[in-house]
Every structure is written in C-alpha cells, then in structure tokens.
Amino acid sequence: KVIAVCIHASALAMSPLKTKVGEEYYKYWKPVGVPAAVINRTACLSQVSAWAGIINKELQKPTSVSLSMTNKYNAANRQLSIDVNTLSREKLDGKLQVWIIEDSIIAKQYFKKGRVEPNYVHNHVFRAAVNGTWGTDIALQENVEAKSKFSIQLDAKWKEANVSIVAFVYNDSGVQQVIKQHINS
Q1: pTM to 2 decimals?
Q2: Helix ranges, 5-95 (H)
Q3: Mean pLDDT across the chain, nearest whole number?
Q4: Hey, how many other C-beta atoms are within 10 angstroms of the C-beta on 118?
Q5: Are 122 and 105 a contacting pair, CB within 8 Å?
C-alpha cells in the first residue's frame, strides 16, 4: 500500500499546516529543496521524477508484519482511543508509530514561479504523532499478536469528519507495514 502523509515544515510552511513534530522530522531528514519525499523511511528525495521508481521498488519488498486497528471516538469530549494489533511471522524489533492526519484543509499553497493559491485544498496533512515523535518500541515474537492502546484528544481546530489514523511498524530496514483508517472505522 501507498499511504501518503504530507508533513508541512521548513521556513515555507505556515499555520495551520505546520507542526513542531513536523519540524523535528524536517531537521532529521534534512531535505535539499521542497517538495521532498521520505519513502518508507529509507531515503529523502527532492527530485520528484525519482519518487515513482523508489516507490515501485519498495512495494516489491515482502513483509512478515500485519496490522489491524480499531478506533473509538467520543464526539462529546473529542477523545479518540486507538487499538493497534501487530502480528509478525518472524521475530522483529522496531518501532510502532501512530499519526493523526487530516484531509480537506483549506489554506494557502505556494507553487513554482511565485504563484500562490490562497484557498488550496490540502489532503493527508500530518497533525500529530500520538505516541511520540519517533513512536514506541515494539518487540514482535514469531506469530504472537502484540496489542497496543493509545489515546488522544482531537484539537478543536481539526474537523473530525476529515481525520484518519495512520499506524506503521518500522525499523532500520524501513517501514515494515502500514495501515490507515478513518476515526469512525
């Protein structure tokens, strides 16, 4: 699967799209120019023409990890509970990361040659890292399901109808598996 997450960072990014965690990622990956892509946490590329080839190569890699997720949202207090179940066919040590993203955000967007679109519709926008900037440690045993529970209160500015959760397992070899669900799934 390809699950895009747009992290707005750098001096070009602005409210309401920019986040502190996004800035941490930007400083870590050190892109040369924008737009830039980090594909499966393996490389940071600014040359858009190279993205498709790298994505295709990453999609060919096998994985032993499977993920499932259940979300419970309480609209009265905007509290979201997220249960992530992880299973691996082999022993694997890594990190489990849970992010909040939002679609249909109307905000300014800069384009090449100084063109500005004041009411651009932004999708897949990174909003928060539920379990910390780099996720939480996960030690998967062969064929033993690992259950993880997380909770976050949605920011009042986020439109719950447009919010999704992205969960993924990664290690030094890159992203091992990813899943995306709307908060009411």
Answers
A1: 0.94
A2: 20-29, 51-59
A3: 93
A4: 8
A5: yes
